[in-house]
C-alpha cells in the first residue's frame, strides 16, 4: 500500500465531511434516526474521517492545532468496536454542532497547504 501524503489525507477528510453534510442536509434528528441508509453512510464517513486523521503525520498535526485531531482519531475505534452501542443523539450533535467548524478548518488548512507534485497520486 502506498503512503498517502498529508495533503491527500486532508482532502480525504474534507471529502468525508462534505459527504456527511450532503447526506444530512435538510434532515432533523428524527429524520436522521429513521433513515438507516443515511445513518450507515454517516457512520462510514466518520470512520474515514478518523482513519485519515490518524494517518496524517504528527508533525503536520502539530502545525495545525485548530483541528482537534485527537478527538477525531478517538472517534473511529468507538464506531468500529462499539458499533452496537452507538448513541445517535450524540452523533447528531457532532454532525450539527462540530462538523461544520471542522469542515471550515480543514478547508482553510488545505488552502494554506497547496499540494506539491509529489502529492499527486497517479490514476
From TrEMBL:
GO terms for cellular component: toxin-antitoxin complex. Keywords: Hydrolase, Nuclease, Nucleotide-binding, Phosphoprotein, Toxin-antitoxin system. This is DUF86 domain-containing protein. It comes from Spirosoma profusum. It holds the Pfam family HepT-like. InterPro entries: HepT-like, HepT-like_sf, HepT_RNase_toxin. One of its GO terms (molecular function) is RNA nuclease activity. Belongs to the HepT RNase toxin family.
Amino acid at each position: 500500500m502506498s503512503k498517502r501524503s498529508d495533503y491527500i489525507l486532508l482532502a480525504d477528510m474534507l471529502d468525508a465531511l462534505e459527504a456527511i453534510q450532503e447526506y444530512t442536509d435538510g434532515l432533523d434528528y428524527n429524520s436522521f434516526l429513521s433513515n438507516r441508509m443515511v445513518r450507515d453512510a454517516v457512520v462510514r464517513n466518520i470512520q474515514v474521517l478518523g482513519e485519515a486523521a490518524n494517518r496524517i503525520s504528527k508533525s503536520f498535526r502539530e502545525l495545525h492545532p485548530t483541528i482537534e485531531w485527537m478527538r477525531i482519531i478517538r472517534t473511529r475505534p468507538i464506531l468500529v468496536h462499539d458499533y452496537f452501542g452507538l448513541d445517535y443523539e450524540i452523533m447528531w450533535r457532532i454532525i450539527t454542532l462540530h462538523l461544520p467548524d471542522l469542515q471550515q478548518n480543514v478547508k482553510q488548512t488545505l488552502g494554506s497547504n497547496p499540494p506539491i507534485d509529489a502529492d499527486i497520486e497517479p490514476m
